[in-house]
Amino acid sequence: MSDTNIADLETFRQETRNWLAANCPPEMREPVRDEDDVYWGGRRATFKNDAQKAWFEACLAKGYTVPAWPKAYGGAGLSPPQAKVLREEMARIGARPPLSSFGIWMLGPALLQFGTEGQKQRFLNEIARGEIRWCQGYSEPGSGSDLVSLQTYGEDKHDNWVVNGQKIWTSYADHADWIFCLVRTDKADKYQGITFMLFDMASKGVTTKPILLISGNSPFCETFFYNVSVPKSYGDDCPAYVGQINRGWDVAKYLLGHEREMISGADNGDRAAAIGAAMKRHAGKTGDELDPVLRAELAMFDVDALAYSAMGEKFLDEIKVGKAHPAQPNMMKYAGTELNKRRHELMMAVGGSRSLEWDSDDTDGGKPARGWLRTKANSIEGGTSEVMLNVIAKRILDLPGA
Amino acid sequence: MPLYHTDDQAMLADTAGGFIAEEGNIAKQLRHWRDRDCKDGFGHGLWKQMAEMGFTGMLVEEADGGLGMGHVEAGIVLEQIGRNLTPSPFLTSSVLAATALKHGSADLRGRYLPGLIAGDSVFAVAIDETARHRPSRITARAEKSGNGFKLSGSKSFVVYGSSADMIVVAARTAGADDDADGITLFAVPKDASGMSHNSVRLVDSAMATHTRFDGVELDGDAVIGEIDGGRAVLDAMLRAGRVGAAAEGVGIARGAMDMTVDYLKQRKQFGRLIGEFQALQHRASHLYSEVEIARAVTIKAQQLCDASAPSADLMASVAKAKVAKTARLAVQEGVQMHGGIGMTDEYDIGLYMKRDRALAEFLGDAYFHANRVAELSGY
Q: Which of B122, B153, B172 lies at the terminal end of a domain, its last residue?
């Protein structure tokens, strides 16, 4: 980076800092405790309070709900270094995201990569403005790790498909307006017989049923499709599928890589940090001491966590200049999620019996226990640890028959 | 600074990688000297060649005739030394002793650095006095005597001690055995009277000594840095040595892993390549993941060291511990996946296991450094 760019970036940082000081309400700088502390958007969305509304609207006007997207699609058109500065400055004051959604994290990147101009104009702007809340229809009861075996079928009826089948682990399907969904459109070709479809969850024949998890929460649903009619086009240059018909697996694979990067926490400093010192303070508050063996485990954990955070930094540096192995996100996802499970096991141990409380005020409604249970999904969702190891064996180590 | 090599560093890695694979490989060096029961445990010819390549004086300031490079560059050479199991005084001479001598007088630097840069001299360091690394406790004493000092006590695990032209010795000049202050570093020449070596061959075929100092008389100008104020220099030396040892350990881990993954692609049992078995694939993939992480934290520690960052000490211990754990995993999986032939002297994988054991012990193993990470973090 040239000196001029660094100077420009510092100017941008100062401007950003001033803008945040003027526009991010103090309430929006508090840590996120509950899901509705962040605005998720959608047709049925309401703001929790005025501060949340003001923060969302300020960001919307500036393009900061999706800062790195082009201005034409509702973003602010920030360069990667500028977007990093914005993230850093938001993190510095603890600013909550103004808008969260699977549209921003998943569908948006897919459309930016594979979408038509018409799709980008319509769907990206809707996502940026928080108008439509999307969910992701990937897994099926019989297709978890072996996702490509999925059976949900769209029968070709010329102008439309008639979709029948069932999805599972559909995050927030019961709150979503639209779904991006993998649908089999050719039963004869396993990989080149899947279409990446977009359709309205209000369509006739779509039903959702939340799944109660061991954490006591229901973030995931079963989603049923019974003779759902999906038009092939939503207007000029706006097909109902991303990429090509029967080539949805290309889009799905791209998004899985993207998802693994996110879940790995490579760009999330907090999740990669050491915990030993905080655990000692925590134990001190309850009058407990760390047993020598527990302290030793914390020390070994911190070695791994600090080393992994260096790996995260290296991975992001290498991605920027195309030096990272294309399958490296699988390694990051594997190592990062296994580490996070270990972190919560240790936090539970340090918390002792207090961390067992399920709904007390002292534990903010059982946060430690529910959080611990939630982490068990880390190494399952978005590709299990075992699938990650398979991919590393095949694509990086080039082992036979992998 | 991004956590990958600059173009210049990548070029150095190519050069060093090619040179050490050619001249420092296991057959030409480790096995050659071991099978001849060499009393030095390394080859002076290769040391001279490394000087010609400019490696021996990498960390020496340009004003003193060196290249003025940093720990990233030294780490590049050390990773290749690790990968080839090259017996070499590089870590003790060009990293540890060279770091100590940065704090020495012009006279001391003039006396020792030209020999190092030319590849004519070899240095050792004498810090530990017990079987496990414990630099907080220094009991060897140097008493004031005339214009100089009289050094008494003993040091253990002095790698290449009997071959060294000069040994950097950490001794106590004031205070109690476990005091942080009151340490002084001395450059003790090989011919110092009253110094005696009990040489031992180690499991990795390297030579070390248990060294005794019986009233060794030293001039005042043998002092490196400040009298009684040697702890800071000792810490700088340890930090450099640990980061360097981590880089060498990464080379051991990567060398053992590559050799093992290759073997999985050649060995057949039950009519299939054993690399087709998922039980082995998953273990190899896990190992790959750990090795990548160990590499990353080592580069991070090198960069922090070069920047003299406050967190360099913590990350040096994180790197040493992480690499020690990872290289241990690599050599254990290596021998196991090689099966019976992994136990034979003929195959190299067992040599990796032996070298890992010795290197991990040097300047503190994973337990020592994990404990240090906890202490530096405040718990």
A: B122
Q: What is the CATH number of the domain that holds B334?
A: 1.20.140.10
Work out how many domains chain B is built from and give that number: 3
Cα dist. B200→B123, B204, B245 in Å? 17, 11, 21
Q: Is the pLDDT of residue A91 over 90?
A: no
Range of the domain at A190: 134-247
Q: Which helix (H) or strand (E) holds A223?
A: strand A220-231
Q: What is the pLDDT of residue A3?
A: 45
Q: In the structure encoding, which two tokens stand for residue A104, read together? A: 């921003």
Q: Which value, to the nearest 10 degrees, does the dihedral of the CA atoms of residues B77, B82, B84, B86 take?
A: 80
Which residue ranges in chain B fall short of pLDDT 50? none
CA-nearest residue to A282 within chain B is B379
Residues A280 and A316 reside in one and the same domain: yes
Confidence of residue A49 (pLDDT cuts 50, 70, 90): very high
Q: How confident is the model at residue A266 (pLDDT cuts 50, 70, 90)?
A: low
Q: Within 13 Å of residue B28, how many CA atoms lie on the same side as its CB?
A: 14
Structure token digits, residue A160: 């439309």
Percent of chain B surpassing pLDDT 70: 100
Total-model pTM: 0.91
Tens of pLDDT, residue by residue over A114-130, are 999 999 999 999 999 99
CA distance A15 to A22: 11
**B229-241 pLDDT, tens per residue?**
999 999 999 999 9
Residues A232 and A292 grouped into a single domain: no
Instruction: Name chain B contacts of A320, Cβ cutoff 8 Å.
Output: 2
| Neighbouring C-beta atoms of residue B152, cutoff 10 Å | 17
| Whether B307 contacts chain A with CB within 8 A | no
Residues of A in contact with B297 (CB under 8 A): 306-307, 310-311
Give domain status of residue A108, yes or no. no
Specify the CATH number for the domain of residue B212.
2.40.110.10
Looking at CA atoms only, how far is residue B236 from chain A in angstroms? Answer: 21
Is B137 within a domain? Answer: yes
- A303, B366: Cβ pair inside 8 Å? yes
Q: Could you tell me if A150 and A140 are in contact, meaning their C-beta atoms sit under 8 angstroms apart?
A: yes
* Residue B96, φ and ψ in degrees, nearest 5: -70, -60
Closest CA of chain A from B125, distance in Å: 27
CB pairs under 8 A between A and B: 139
Contact B105, B139 (CB under 8 A): no
Residue of A nearest to B318 (CA): A303
Last residue of a domain, one of B207, B228, B249: B228
**C-alpha–C-alpha distance, residues B141 and B151, integer Å:** 6
Shared-domain flag, residues B253 and B197: no
Domain that holds residue B252: 232-377
Do A175 and A66 lie in one domain? The reply is: no
Count up the domains in chain A and report the number: 3
CA distance B326 to B250: 8
CB contact under 8 A, B285 and A392: yes
Residues 235-264, chain B, touching A (beta carbon < 8 A):
261, 264
CA distances (Å), A280 to each of A277, A336, A344, B33, B318, in order? 5, 23, 15, 51, 19
ipTM, two decimals: 0.96
Cβ atoms of B284 and A388 closer than 8 Å: no
- Whether residue A227 is found in the same domain as residue A294: no
Q: Give percent above pLDDT 90 in chain A.
A: 82
CB contact under 8 A, B284 and A399: yes
3-state SS, B188-253, equals EECCCCCEEEEEEECCCCCEEEEEEEEEEEECHHHEECCCCECHHHHHHHHHHHHHHHHHHHHHHH
Same domain, yes or no, for A141 and A92?
no
In terms of domains, do A18 and A85 share one? yes
